[in-house]
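User: Modeling request: complex.
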Amino acid sequence: MIDSVDPDRARLWSVVAIALSLPLLMTVCWMLWSVPYPLSESVATFEVSQRPAASFLVPSSSYYRPLFFMTMSVLWHSAASLNGALAAVRLVHIVPVTMLVVLLIWHVRPRSPVDAAAAIVAVTVLVGSPGFIDNLELPLSYTIVGMAAALLVWMLSERDHRAWHGPAIVALTLMAIGFKEQGLVLVPLVMAAWWAGAPGVGRATVATVAGIGVAYVVFRLTLHDPSLPLFEQDIGLGFGNLSPSEAEARFGSFPLWIYAYSAASTISNVLFAEPTGGVFRIVRALSEGQPLPWHFVHLFSSLSLTSLVVWWGVGAPPPAVNRTWSPEARLFIVTMVVLVACGSLSFNYSRDRLGGMAVVFYALAAYLAVRAAANRAAHAPPAIAAVTAVVLLMIAGSWQFRAIYAIEFSRDRAVKAQREWMTALYGRRIEAARPPEYLRIMREMTEQGTDPAANQYTPYPRWMVRMLGEF
Amino acid sequence: MAALIATPAVVAAVWLGGIEGYRLVQPESPLFRREDSLGSLAQAITVCCRVEDAYAFIRAGRDPNEPLTIDDPEYTGGGSITVSPLMLAVAAGNGNVVMMLLSFGAQPDLPQNRLAGCLARALGQTEMATIIATYVREDARTTCPERSSNDQRPLLRWVFDEATAAP
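Assistant: Request completed. Predicted assembly structure:
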């Protein structure tokens, strides 16, 4: 728990916070339930899932996600029908999303109107962050599962120690790593939490988690294929992109600088909404004199909130004599550690989704920062209180816009996915080396991909669309 | 203070609850449709650029190879002509509809579609011409005939002419 709370008051204001977050959460979940699976990502994923589950334990590419593919394989083979399998896979996305919102509110346990308001802002920060939005793409649930695991680990760390905490934390860490490499973030998370005196983490747990991290890295390095390209995907740099071959030609002899740039880009995207995938789109638009309203919404919301978080974090109580930090200071430290870890793991290329694990802690920090500012303003002179109130209102409002953007961006992505189903089928059919199983799955999924009822836009006025974001 | 901070969330909750609830109850409401339904596949191909509108006709059972009649002066010069949907989509420069028709049963080998690649090339749509050519069987490839007409409307120059097309 972040603070000790009166159970009845916590329950009341928790219910209020959940109730006000419910429409947003339910809309996101309904959208995940109803939008079509994209042709590009899903057919290949389900085709790979036809392999025996044990085969995923051996790395066969630079990406290693055994638990994700084993989950897909189990769901695919155990379903009575294609629709049943697709529904089950949707749940692998919907359940973690729901857990993230509900557990976040449960963890912070708002006990006053200010707490509830801050919790609601935290939910909009979580949902409206690029690291969350970019992880809503079906069926690629690996990071969203890891995000829920990270939150659970943090919750366990902050509670009084129980014998089962250790095994639970280890299991969640293994699950997160098994779903995607970003799960490695849980290793420094647990270590930092322990170092800062988190009551729920014991020495044995830290040692085990650290050992898992080391073993995983050794395992991957041992089986690393040196013939793989230096850069897996396009690299964003400045105002443009470099293809993998261009990046290798330019940085191949000394890639550390571009690695550092990509890592810093992921961190910066979480904190400042720029760059995206290593590209400074908003800055480019501003420098070219072509700003759009959403540029200002995104920049203001991130810059102001990050400033608030820094103000709150720097002002957190210093450690006690026995090195135990306050819960608030601990969260601030862990947030920074997770940010650096996310950045480090995205050294090869930067994408919004790679900051997903840090978004959870950014949202938690947002809760405490907003709450601290509101409580401080309540005791400040009227002028300062009024200014603080207006700023907090603007922060809350701008992040609410971004949360709605999460929904509409996902709808827009679904429209594009549907168009791909309508236009790319024949090309896929005649492409060389498409296995029969791929073609069969594609054929069977065509109906869900082209169902016109699956996509409906929302009639926002044009001025609002221009404030939401890029489509 | 709390009420002020929570105001955007309250407004959003009411809005989302209302609009999404209405969407669940009335999914066919005009509120959620971009335009009115189009009357024909020809209109969907030429008037509007959204492949979804053209696909709706194919999904409803329209044969993608069955010729349609178009009387848009921009394409016909005032009268009406009968062309295949594929030819019309090429003339309209609607690459997405071309791909959709090919994905859902349009056969470039058929007589009514055989000159689609020629039309695309004449319009400078080399990528579209290449894609169409890829889908044509080796033994069904057509040499693009010389057109004697100087009509400014490409579709009129390339509507299938049994007498002039070379095998």
